[in-house]
Task: structure prediction
Amino acid sequence: MPVRKYGIYLAYGPIKNFTAEGLGRHLGEFLKAAQDLDDVEFVIAAPSWFREPYEELREEFNLREDAFKLLIPENPPLLWVGYSWLDRLKKRLDARRRRGSRPARIGLRAKVSRWGKSQIRRLVGVRSLWVLLALLPLALVALPFVTVMLLIWLVGKLLRRLLPQRFISPTRWRGKISKVAHVAGSIVGALRGRVYKAMQDAESRYLSELANKQDDVLAWYTPSAFWPNFNLIAAPKVICIPDVVFSEFPLPFASEQEGGDRLRTTFDAIADIIESGDHFITYSVEIRNTTLGEKFGVPTSKVTVIPHGANRLDRYITVTGFTDNDKASLITSQQYLAAALGKCLNNASAPRLAFGEPAFLFYASQFRPNKNVQTLLKAYAFLRRERGLSLKLILTGDPRHSPLGRFLKENDLDDDVLCLRGLTQKELAACYKLAHLAVNPSLAEGAMPFTLTEAISVGTPAIMGDIPVTSEIITREHLREAILFDPYDWRELAAKIEWALKNRNDLLKLETDFYDEELVKRSWSVVVREYVAALDLAASKGKPDGSLGHGR
Amino acid sequence: MLKSIGFNEVFTPKIYPDDPNFRSASVDWEHDQYLTIPADDLAILNATDWYKGGNRRSWELASRYFDVAFVMLYRPDTFEAAQKHFEGQVLWRTFGLSNGNTYSSILSSHPFYEPAYASIRKLYGRFWFAEAYDHLHEVEDRYLRSKAVFLPLGMNSASRPRPEEWTGTDRRTLFVCPDVNFNPVYEEIYRKFRRDFPNLPCVIGGAQSIAVDDDRVLGYLPYDEHLRNMKQLRVMFYHSTEPTHIHFHPFEAIVAGMPLIFMGGGILDRFGGKKLPGRSATIREARKKLDRILAGDEKFIREVRESQHILLEPMKPENCRAAWEVGMAKVLSSANSPQAVKETKAVRIAILTEPSDLQVAEQAADLIVNGAREAGRSIKVVIGIRRAAGAGINRLEPQSRYATRDFGWEATDAQHVNRAMHYGRAFSRPRHDRYVFPNDGMNNFLDCDIWVLANGELKHTPVPLRPLILHADRTSLAADLDNGDLPDKWLSGIASLSNAVVTNEERASSIFVGMEGVSPANLLVMRSPPTLEDSKSYWELIEECL
Result:
């Protein structure tokens, strides 16, 4: 069978825990299915620092060693050295700043004193004369040092008596150091940002050069619109645009808090790549028509819609080989949840909940403007206070620098609403499994949120906001009525939560049937075939005769 | 030209502005007979003032029968209406600008044309920069440059020159410069000509809207007299060195056989090169050449006349045809590629009000719902109620027949709004320092297509991210109307900031139109009590704003 060769262009910056990120999981599932194609080969072009994440992917998703040809430069660019140094420096300065602002810790003097006392205790306990004689030369060598230190200590003591208190206050100096560290941290941070940008630009440009040398690659695909240098590739190109949420939520994303003019630069890069792109893949008809069509004027003929495959989490917590596998899975999940509760950012008592059997609603989401967390909080506060709901609410966003943090405080919700940050896939799966109900009130997504398949895969029902990307997939009216609510109306959300908890089993059955009959059938091998078809289309458009050539 | 390349049905406007700039315009009914449009619809198209932008119905009608619309930038309304209501390809006919101006710079720097810029950007693939000369796009920004299609400007008479009719017995130079006291550009050209060519025997042609105190200025001439001048005057001087703009009269001179002395550096260089005897690199050279012709240097006159025909070549219709075929094929191929399917989604309307005006908001909602029902449109209405706690937790039960949402007016600065408009692809910029937006804790009512403000009580201008209708109920207006004012507590200028105003207070209409600058077309004064006709008009106004 003739084999067609396509390229995947990945210009991610230095990235950690790639497989735990949504993008990493998506790529992993994609590659896992792609490695089994008979008639298509993929070449992966990626920056030098992507070797490690790629190895992570290989392990996590069982990718064969020879499955893909890699175009990954052996050595990182020289700027990488500068970047790494600045990155380390920034982290140190941040740590210094945090230390400065913390309440007093054990000081150096106390440490020295404590060490000295312990040594003296040991010394006076020595019973052997030989040991004592052996220590004598050491004591003679140490004597001048001890004398100097004693003098310094005496002068210090004298000065402390003579000078006003404010000159010698340790908190004062700590504050100063903290301020200096703060300013230095900002400067180093900005410098690191610039170096990062320059380095990523240079590396992605180099990748495009490498890609241009691959004559047998018919077309290139990139999963992100953040890499303008992708357009330097001469062969036909396909760009994935999951969404452009900035343009749907312009006011919140335009705030200084979201990055101000820095974010605008990113937006311009995305707009540029969309306006000059050949062909696009997106996950929903809604994004094709509204975002790409109406907001960016991209004709439908340039866009292929490929809905997601089912995103399952069951494999992370399914335990086998026990007499009672379900119970073993449950206990495993509880252990993961206990670990997750330890990551709570807004409630120091959260880990103690693991001693019981925490009962909660769950919404897995970052705190971004389109995620509509505040509406969920309003509905939850109403249910908790007016309707006697005895469930916690677990969220996965970071409230510390978010208006939602203020909202939680102002409304005394920190006791009941737990924000767990940085969950692993296992912890995420456990949260879904142990939740009474998964709720997703998001106002806009690139495709139907993963909430439904993730929750159902571990046996938990879910309710979701009635948004176009979701109603594209949930087409049956009775399912819509059961699962969906108006995400702009917190009262309707509250009523839906009450209804779903009351009818939990019925809802679960309804959703499980839908999951088994439709959602789960959309496997990643089906999805990857559709990507290949989109690449075929782009490649044929790129040929003067419209034909699809074959690789050598 | 369109007919010669196979476009059998062409509609031409029957109304044009009473504007001196349109002096040479005329109405041509000739093409109507070839249209296969029902007479009633054609009558509507003919009765439409397209130069004022037309209206939604006319454009929708045009959309039904035509694939392509040629527009010019007279008023931005035309672009706005075409973008909103015409589904075909929109070709902006451009002939180049003088004085270093570019279309891009005019669109971006002149507030009057800002809506046209936004409309062009929002037309995306349906927009074309239909340039009359193939290099005009080179000086433009990317959004125009990338959409250039060359549709050359021809001149019918260029194919039928009449050099034998020229006698040149009048030993004077013809210099054409219309509207000297009306158009500052021409005024400067006139002054420069006088400075550069003192004592040159000449006449100055071109119609003058305002009289010029100079005996040599001919002003408007009857056609016969104009023809006689073209035959008898000895030479024409053409001043322009503009690389992106040219007038017709140099070509008319060549058709008439009159020697043309022209300045180099302009479009004529692209047509005839730099070696024509009539071309002058400097004013001094031009003066020498003019003097030679005026002195009767037969040899030189012959050289100029015999060589200048080359300048007519690009203007001959038969030479333009191929470019038109290629250009229009390019436009139509894009027209045939499927665009995003326009779904007829429900129109979402937010009515923003104070708790005390909830009843007024509900009445507005009733009118809109009835109007939409009559028009067969599906809509969703949400009443936004301003609360002291903003979008925070509010324990008050909503007491309305409509869906409600709590919000607070949040003030923000121009930088924030500028970025938001950029992200929202509004293609315009903020004009005020401070703004407010209705913060509902979600997407700030941007899930709605239009905002109706059922009270004008604001501290700053609402962000221009959605069309705004001011619904001014008589209960809010009554107290201040006797003083000839809108309520003091209302934001000053709120009516003029709105896209349309609806009121049930007849007495307020003169204030809105006379004092607030609301266009009568954008003002709806309803009867009391309002009728179904008012509902229909209300809905029509909303459709115009969408």
Remarks:
- The domain at 157-312 of chain B is CATH 3.40.50.2000 (Rossmann fold).
- Chain B touches chain A through 38 residues (CB under 8 Å).
